[in-house]
Design brief:
Keywords: Signal. By secondary structure, this protein is of the alpha/beta class. It is built from five helices and 17 strands.
């Protein structure tokens, strides 16, 4: 089985005494290419054996990009997203942080990035081995913010890239998966991880990022035998059975 539900005792036996964040009871664990991974309700992925934290599709400064085009969104998305990343880094103390592409919403984001936010990013990249994986929105991360750039990153049996190809052992982003779930007479739509045990697509972590239903045709070539969704809850991640997934009613107008 590639999905595990672990008791608090089992979690501590595997990870040792780590943090309260990684020791919640009944967390959903994933097996991928022989590795045990913990999907977090914040939308990040924790690889305890290598002390690697993976975040994806932060889309920093998306709000200011929209404001420049006349759509006045509140200018707090970058700060809110950084709050999440900082909290996870403080709790888990990762050796490596992988930002899995589209970390910035566009190539001009660094010009709009307020100095206090830039300082917070520099503090994060200075405290960890920070890897900016190339995305379709941000092929060249700003050098002054620190960290190192990579088109594709391989660690052991896992490969990290932005746009998924369906390769075995792959962890990717880009598609912003979301699960629409029917249960107890109501519908709930949540960001989610999508996996079949051989490959995984990460949810978008950015505050203003949208989501693409995992039943959309874009996911079919990546998961030819079907996928399972792992929906983000307030305190934990929930495994969702395929029969509980429902498509969006209208054709999606969301764009990558």
């Amino acid at each position: 089985m590639w999905i595990l539900r672990l008791t608090r005792f089992a979690m501590r036996a595997i990870f040792g005494v780590m943090t309260a964040l990684a020791a919640r009871p009944s967390d959903t664990m994933l097996h991928l290419a022989g590795e045990l991974l913990l999907p977090l309700p914040e939308g990040a992925l924790w690889w305890a054996a290598e002390r690697v934290l993976v975040v994806s599709d932060l889309h920093l400064e998306k709000g200011s990009a929209y404001a420049a085009r006349g759509q006045m969104l509140p200018p707090y998305d970058t700060g809110a997203t950084l709050n999440l990343v900082e909290r996870l880094c403080a709790a888990l103390r990762p050796r490596t942080v992988i930002s899995l592409g589209d970390s910035f919403h566009d190539r001009a984001a660094e010009l709009r990035l307020p100095a206090p936010y830039a300082a917070r990013i520099q503090a994060l990249t200075g405290a960890h081995d920070w890897v900016w994986v190339e995305g379709n929105h941000d092929p060249d991360p700003p050098a002054y913010l620190g960290g190192r750039a990579a088109k594709v990153l391989r660690i052991g049996s896992l490969v990290f890239r932005h746009e998924p190809t369906g390769a075995a052992g792959e962890i990717a982003g880009h598609l912003h998966p979301a699960a629409k779930v029917k249960g107890r007479g109501r519908l709930v739509r949540r960001r989610c991880f999508a996996s079949d045990g051989a490959r995984l697509v990460m949810p978008a972590m950015g505050t203003f990022t949208g989501g693409l239903n995992v039943l959309d045709a874009a996911f079919a070539p990546l998961f030819p035998e079907g996928l399972m969704a792992f929906a983000l809850g307030g305190e934990r991640v929930f495994a969702v059975s395929a029969k509980s997934l429902v498509p969006d009613v209208a054709a999606s107008r969301w764009r990558l």
